[in-house]
Amino acid sequence: MRVVVQRVSEASVTVEGEITGAIQAGLLVLCGFCPEDTEDDLQWMAAKIVKQRIFSDADGQMNLSVEDIGGSLLVVSQFTLFASYKKGNRPGFTGAARPELAIPLYERFLTILETLTGKRPERGIFGADMKVSLLNDGPVTLVMDTRNKE
């Protein structure tokens, strides 16, 4: 599992002109899944996202989590996070999980996040042509991968 997490002042996702998810202060999470992903990967990633101390405290130090600030999550599936660009100039996506595997992983990930935060994450629509809008705060952007836990 691979994610890009962005600290945002606001973010939204629109599908066919309709907003499907929107948040104010919180985290925009772009997530991609690979065929090897397991329940343990989903649990680890969700806990890391919820507990990451990347929001500023009263002293301007990054000491607060999204939970600490009462922030929200907007979670958008993005298979392109598993792009392969080794050959040629057109990326390949064979490393990404196919929809029949990725959709249940995405839904389970959303459920885990909801359990951890007590709030339903806002979301896009899996497989749709989505327009994502955000106001990155900082900017603070993290890339996390369950296969490379740095």
- SSE order in H/E notation? EEEHEEEHEE
Q: What's the pLDDT, averaged over the residues?
A: 95
- The tally of beta strands, per DSSP, is 8
CATH class equals Alpha Beta
* Number of discrete helical segments: 2
Write down the Rg. Answer: 15 Å
CATH architecture: 3-Layer(bba) Sandwich
Helix content: 10-25%
What's the overall geometry?
globular
Strand content is 35-45%
Overall structural domain count: 1
Provide the structure class.
alpha/beta
Largest sheet: 6 strands, mixed
- Spans of at least 5 consecutive residues with low confidence: none
The name of the CATH topology is: D-tyrosyl-trna(Tyr) Deacylase, Chain: A
Termini separation:
14 Å
Query: What is the assigned CATH homologous superfamily?
Result: D-tyrosyl-tRNA(Tyr) deacylase
Detailed description of the structure:
This protein is α/β, with parallel strands linked by helices. It has a single domain (2-136), classed as 3-Layer(bba) Sandwich (D-tyrosyl-trna(Tyr) Deacylase, Chain: A). Helices cover 21% and strands 37% of the residues. It has helices at 39-51, 99-117; strands spanning 2-15, 18-23, 26-32, 55-56, 62-64, 72-77, 122-123, 130-145. Helix 1 (39-51) packs across helix 2 (99-117). The radius of gyration is 15 Å and the shape is globular. The protein starts with a strand and ends in a 5-residue tail after the last strand. The model has no long low-confidence stretch (mean pLDDT 95).
